[in-house]
Design a protein that fits this description.
β15 (428-441) and β16 form a beta hairpin. The chain has a 4-stranded antiparallel beta sheet with strand order 1-2-3-4, with helices on one face. The protein has a 4-stranded mixed beta sheet with strand order 8-9-5-12, with no helix packed on it. A 4-stranded antiparallel beta sheet has the order 7-6-10-11, with no helix packed on it. By secondary structure, the chain is an alpha+beta fold. It has helices at 80-133, 136-148, 152-158, 171-182, 277-280, 335-353, 372-378, and strands at 187-191, 201-206, 209-223, 229-238, 244-251, 255-258, 261-262, 268-272, 289-297, 303-306, 312-315, 324-325, 392-405, 408-419, 428-441, 444-450.
């Protein structure tokens, strides 16, 4: 197909005044006269090989027989201004509809974004709450609360392994010990050197001293939102160190109690004979001194004793050693009568020495087989005692009294003999300090020995 190229546009073919509405075009401008038309085989084609010329009628002159046309085929008689105005109106309507649609769409989008942002912020809030709640220090704050409240009942039960308690104490003793350990102390906690994010470990301090260690672990059955862990106390150790003990030395005829619990042979250590036996043998043997010992106590124990006469009293430890030294009884039901008899015996002894009694005046006060009485009588000093008037006994004082048991006692009696010697103008006080041991023989008290 041959076509002319670069054919110049004829300006006469365009309206000079731009009136495109009333402008007509001759479609037979000859541009396709040299184009050979090819028709498909078997298809329709003109019989004479010539194209039929069609005459296009003007829109203002309808063809004969076509007076009745469909509304869509009726020629548009509107002017260009009307067409433009109507086009602008249509455009305005379309613009109005689009603007309305756009505003509604933007409003819905804004609402959707607001809901999305609200949901997102709610998600962030809940996520942050769950995350904060999952931090292990929250659990430690809960652990510390009973410490701050001094709730030793709760602290005691929190321990993984409860402390070993001897028969002399109870759980209350340990709680009291824990309370004394924490009382008036500045309490805090810190991470240990073994702390990791997966295995948190803390130590609790009282005035900077470690009193407990806490280990936390993640629960395998519980979790917070967003799979954050729930922590639980897997190990709690309160350093309850039982440092108190007792060491008791007591006569064997005593009954001893530690915190109200009677001591038995499980705590027996040793026995020792008292040196005072040398003064009462062979008539009596003094009770041995037994030693008991125990440890593992949290509180300083209260030691009480009941002597052979049934008298109970509290025993205090020695400040220097902390030992409980329980002496022989210093009191008994017949103490006053025994003391009076001791005063009588010492008075008789002083008067015998001063030669103010008969030679046999001391015999009733000693056992019949006493070895001491013959020695006293053999002392010839009484025979050379200076001449004097009968002395007057003054300033009698019981300085010491020990009732070892119902058959033996010791008494120290101090007295003065006010004596007028014939060789002196003024009376003279002669002191006697008698350390006498008494034993009961056939129901009567006798002097068994004197400690000089």
């Amino acid at each position: 197909m041959n076509r002319k190229k670069n054919k110049k546009r004829n300006p006469s073919t365009y309206p000079k005044d731009g009136d495109w509405v009333n402008y007509s075009v001759d479609i037979h401008d000859g541009w396709a006269d040299d184009v050979a038309l090819v028709y498909p085989e078997g298809g329709w084609k003109p019989d004479d090989g010539e194209l039929t010329n069609l005459t296009l009628e003007s829109p203002d002159e309808p063809s004969t027989g076509d007076s009745l046309k469909a509304p869509s085929d009726i020629a548009d008689t509107r002017t260009a201004a009307e067409i433009v105005r109507q086009s602008q109106t249509a455009v305005k309507k379309k613009t109005h509809y689009f603007r309305t649609f756009l505003i509604i769409w933007l409003g819905l989008l804004a609402i959707a974004i607001a809901f999305a942002l609200g949901y997102f912020y709610d998600f962030l809030d809940s996520y942050e709450i769950a995350y904060q709640a999952s931090l292990p220090y929250h659990m430690m704050n809960s652990v510390m609360q009973p410490f701050y409240d001094m709730d030793m009942e709760t602290v005691y039960k929190m321990q993984t392994d409860l402390p070993v308690i001897t028969e002399f104490e109870t759980e209350e003793s340990v709680k009291l010990y824990m309370e004394e350990l924490l009382e008036d102390k500045a309490l805090s906690y810190e991470q240990t050197s073994s702390y990791t994010d997966d295995f948190p470990e803390y130590q609790i301090l009282a005035d900077g001293y470690v009193v407990a260690t806490v280990s936390l672990r993640k629960s395998q059955t519980e979790h917070l939102d967003y799979d954050f862990p729930v922590w639980y106390v897997s190990s709690f150790t309160f350093y309850t160190q039982p440092l108190e003990y007792f060491h008791i030395e007591v006569p064997e005829n005593y009954t001893v109690y530690v915190n109200g619990i009677e001591l038995n042979q499980d705590y027996y250590i040793s026995s020792a004979s008292p040196k005072e036996n040398m003064y009462v043998e062979p008539y009596q043997t003094l009770p041995d001194i037994k030693t008991y010992q125990g440890e593992g106590l949290y509180i300083t124990p209260t030691v009480t004793a009941v002597n052979s006469f049934g008298t109970e009293y509290v025993v205090l430890p020695e400040e220097s050693t902390g030992r409980y030294i329980i002496p022989y009884p210093s009191d008994c039901p017949d103490a006053e009568a025994m003391k009076a008899y001791a005063v009588e015996a010492v008075t008789m002894y002083a008067n015998y020495v001063s030669n103010d009694t008969t030679d046999n005046a001391l015999d009733p006060y000693f056992p019949s087989d006493s070895t001491l009485l013959p020695l006293i009588k053999a002392n010839t000093s009484r025979q050379y005692y200076a001449s004097h008037q009968t002395p007057e006994i003054r300033n009698v004082e019981i300085r010491e009294f020990t009732a070892y048991d119902e058959n033996v006692y010791y008494c120290e009696v101090y007295l003065e003999q006010s004596t007028k010697f014939y060789s002196q103008r003024e009376p003279e006080s002669v002191p006697t300090d008698g350390h006498f041991y008494f034993v009961k023989i056939d129901g009567e008290w006798k002097i068994c020995n004197i400690a000089y």
